[in-house]
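Render this sequence as a predicted structure.
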Amino acid sequence: MDSVFKALSDPTRRKILQLLKKKDMTVSEILEHFPISQPSLSHHLDTLKRAGLVIPERSGQFIVYSLNLSVFEEAEACILHFFSNDQKDPVS
């Protein structure tokens, strides 16, 4: 879960996730929304992928990124647990 929160700590990565919430996108489509280089964007996408927040899928010569909603649900459960009085750890 640490890698998820680390990935979410960066505003660029949060904006990427917001874009992917609307629709699945290729690197070049995502890049249109940022004033950064393609290698920088690839680094951000790799961080999101390692955290399990995005799923890359090859479509011809392109890689299309989509959200992995199950990881968001786990993070939500972790956050809700943090604010609850329940003693059981939902992410053990």
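Summary. The CA atoms of residues 7 and 48 lie 6 Å apart. The chain has five helices and three strands.
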